């Protein structure tokens, strides 16, 4: 069931209404049933996988509290990661093993292997594993009620694509008594509406051009690849932030608070800052459960950079079983290693030339440069393979042909009106981020307006989504990009 579907527009109000009508003591049972139904709408049999992951981590939490803590942590991680490896990486492993043996002159007949990747497996696996570690560290007590713990793992708003919640935040909220709060519900619905705008007005429209160019780049000027890559930066942002905003808003309507997952990432002045603003729940997961356990920055500068690179390479592989994702992660890690190595040089130049780094032109230059670095890495993220990404780069350099782009611009799956709508949507997203960066969340400002003004804003926002959204009989609802991860 997709957030951007008629099914969800029926499912969510029904679930919410019944939730508040039921007595407090049984509400969590209703949410658990609704969450499993939500997940089973994709593939009912894969509900067994999330149930298995839940059972393993639930049992490990109880056993860790008993004795032999490290053994149970190891078994919990080993079993969950083995499931993830089989469904997500086994085919990738076979391909690379076959290629490696071929270099040694050994022919390996690759067995047929075609398993559908369960939706959201990486997200709920990491959420369940974080609970195991939190219990091991003594940060939370083991949950005794297996069904309430199952709700923590499968809570439907954030089940499929995050935010990856921590047990310290969400598990305790499952015991709280929530009453319907009109102000809270209004703010949550407004955030959901913004998420819908990001997804079906912005991301899905940009996706049409991006998909066309990346699928036919050899027949197009290299300038079209550059344009599509810039558009992809906003597509992936609108798509993933849109999901997160809908998820956080939906949870807020029901009285739950989920962690922030995006904080104006393209306003970052360095790649390190970008990753403190982008997919925050995953970035902090890798920081707390991989980077710091590896030693973090506690064992000297060289070891810190090794830990950083290892974390980002693993993060790249987490996103997909393809070398292009590993390269993408490696680039983001390398940017930070090089940036930190050059920091004394930059500071020296600024000191000699009397450059104030907080001067607006300097901050703007840093933001633009950071965006260019991040966007270059996005090319590897979006390309079908590393060889395809390499081919696109070579083609772009050899056949840039900027003068040829205007004549083909409106033939790239977006006609003139849709292209202008796409630019307007990108501008709206950038303006919203800039205002939020300067003044904080805009939702309280909107909800404080007098009734006519407030409803005028709501109506304009709804009409914008209905009029300019990409949906209808000629366009099936497009899945969120991070479902494949």
What does this structure look like?
With 485 residues, this protein is mostly helical. The chain folds into two domains: 6-179, no CATH class; 180-235 and 245-260 and 383-480, no CATH class. Helix content is 70%, strand content 0%. The chain is built from 20 helices and no strands. The chain has helices spanning 6-21, 24-40, 47-64, 69-103, 121-136, 146-154, 167-173, 182-215, 222-253, 271-277, 280-291, 301-319, 323-341, 343-352, 360-382, 386-398, 405-408, 416-439, 443-447, 451-468. Helix 3 (47-64) runs parallel beside helix 5 (121-136). The chain is globular, with a radius of gyration of 24 Å. The two termini are 17 Å apart. The mean pLDDT is 89.
Radius of gyration (Å):
24 Å
Largest beta-sheet characterization: none
Count of spatially separate domains: 2
Give the N-terminus to C-terminus distance in angstroms.
Answer: 17 Å
The global form is globular
Summarize this entry quickly:
The protein has two domains: 6-179, no CATH class; 180-235 and 245-260 and 383-480, no CATH class.
Per-chain topology:
Elements: H1 6-21, H2 24-40, H3 47-64, H4 69-103, H5 121-136, H6 146-154, H7 167-173, H8 182-215, H9 222-253, H10 271-277, H11 280-291, H12 301-319, H13 323-341, H14 343-352, H15 360-382, H16 386-398, H17 405-408, H18 416-439, H19 443-447, H20 451-468
Helix pairs in contact: 1-2, 2-6, 3-4, 3-5, 3-6, 4-5, 8-9, 8-18, 8-20, 9-15, 9-16, 11-12, 12-13, 13-15
